[in-house]
Amino acid sequence: MLAKLLIRYLRPYRWLLLALLIFQFAAAMASLYLPRLNADIIDQGVARGDTNFIWSRGMIMLVISLGQITASIIATYFAARAAMAAGRDIRRDVFEKVSGFSERELSQFGAGSLITRNTNDVQQVQMLAMMGATMLVSAPLLALGGIFMALQQDVGLSWLIAVAVPALLVAAGLIIARMVPLFRSYQSKLDAVNRIMREQLTGVRVVRAFVRERIEEERFRAANTDIMVVGRKVGSLFVLLFPLAMLVLNVTVVGVIWFGGIQVDSGAVEIGTLFAFMQYVAQILMGVLMASFMTVMIPRAAVSAERIGEVLDSHSTLERPTNPITAFPEPGAVEFDDVAFAYPGAESPVVSGVSFAARPGETVAIVGSTGAGKTTLVSLIPRLFDVTAGAVRVGGVDVREADLDGLWKGIGLVPQRPFLFSGTVASNLRFGREEATDDELWRALEIAQGRDFVEAMDGGLEARIAQGGTNVSGGQRQRLAIARAIVHRPSVLVFDDSFSALDLSTDARLRQALWDELPEVTKIVVAQRVSTITGADRIVVLEDGRMVGLGTHEELLETSATYREIVESQLGVEA
């Protein structure tokens, strides 16, 4: 998966990679040629006292060194550009993929894990791409080229290379083999830390209300300690690699000096040649060390690439139709035709056998006890889920065959737990329609009974809204969410228990304004309070996911025992 991911996202930048390969090759060749010039200066210049030779070769070495530095800088720049661009593209594709997920896929992965995959995991692959591109040519050239040049200097000491290189490879291999399972464990524990942190931030009010701070702190401490233990093991192995490499390098250098000194003393080898051989040995081992360092990064990046690939290869259950229907012959019409829905692996469907219709401009209410399937049912209208049996039609078109953008454009959804984005009141209201004017925003707020408190806020429409709307009350969040849906100009408004945080008088005024100002808009209302839906054109009664009643308030009082029980529990027998 790692190779597949890198090839896929680095392919658009192949010209950058080609350029960096050329400059890396030039820098590596310069590194291999410098020890030979150094040997010539010692053997032919210093030994003979030839100052002109020393100056001429020294100037050549200086020019080559400057060229090597320049080539290395340019190669690193190209590597950084290609790797950062690839990381950007991966994050973009993961975000776009997640944006198309249904509730099913979001629940499967979890929000914390998806955040980690699009940040930390992408960073691991991105860093491997950068380091790999930087060392792609230099490491093997330094190692193989160094061996070739060292053998040209003195074959008699080549046995030292034959011992040092395998020793370094074995040491690095043993360490890396122990790192692979630790990297897998580290990423999963990082998911746990992110998940717990996100839960605590989101549910901070609940935590404080139930005095669970110490328990939650302990839960986070346990997860934090787990990731610390694994990270410490990884770090211990990682830092062990460099001392081992330096040990092998220094022992090899000592061997070269020891055995080479004997040959110099006997006159078999010149001292410049010995110094050049030592430099080539250092380059060989540094090349092997660079390759080992890359190998250390590969396991963690491979784990991250697998996690990214799981997201990119996932197929949303909300697949767009091949030939989507863009025309809706009956705007505002909503029809449920023997609808059933079951979650994957569930023993029984959440809703089943539901059939009703709402004509344009009508109000249809859905009531039932907690867990009856009301939210699931209305989630089928904007196709947040796909039905497992039957059909849902909006505007006269089956939602599974409709163009999703066209479908969503005609639906204004006010969820059970309204969410506001960080920004301003205006930016949140324009989330549904960017071109909406200030007058349209104020009109929507007036219908949603939110104009008074927005005018009282510092800045009015430009008043700041914190992430999630935490700086406004629950009732204000609901009214802003309702206003946002109105600004959207939908033909169908879906209220999923969207009046629960409002007092009775505000609830009544808001419903009256909706009915008076938007008579042409179809309204699907999920409500717990009976007083909210007594004036609906039709009321759907759900019990255990099945429709057990359909009619007006008066009709259901006569025909539905379930509805009558709900009414009596809230309004009394006289109702």
From TrEMBL:
> Membrane topology per the record?
Multi-pass membrane protein
Residues spanning the membrane: 12-34, 54-80, 127-151, 157-180, 237-260, 280-298
Domain ABC transporter, by residue range, is: 334-569
Task: Check the UniProt entry and state the signal peptide residues, or none.
Answer: none
Q: Does the keyword DNA damage apply?
A: no
Q: Which Pfam families match?
A: ABC_membrane, ABC_tran
Q: Where is the ABC transmembrane type-1 domain?
A: 18-300
GO annotation, cellular component aspect: plasma membrane
Q: Known PROSITE patterns for this protein?
A: ABC_TM1F (PS50929), ABC_TRANSPORTER_1 (PS00211), ABC_TRANSPORTER_2 (PS50893)
Q: What InterPro entries does the record tag this protein with?
A: AAA+_ATPase, ABC1_TM_dom, ABC1_TM_sf, ABC_transporter-like_ATP-bd, ABC_transporter-like_CS, P-loop_NTPase, Type_1_exporter
Q: Which UniProt keywords apply?
A: ATP-binding, Cell membrane, Membrane, Nucleotide-binding, Transmembrane, Transmembrane helix, Transport
GO MF terms here are: ABC-type oligopeptide transporter activity; ATP binding; ATP hydrolysis activity
Please report the name of this protein according to its UniProt entry.
Multidrug ABC transporter ATPase
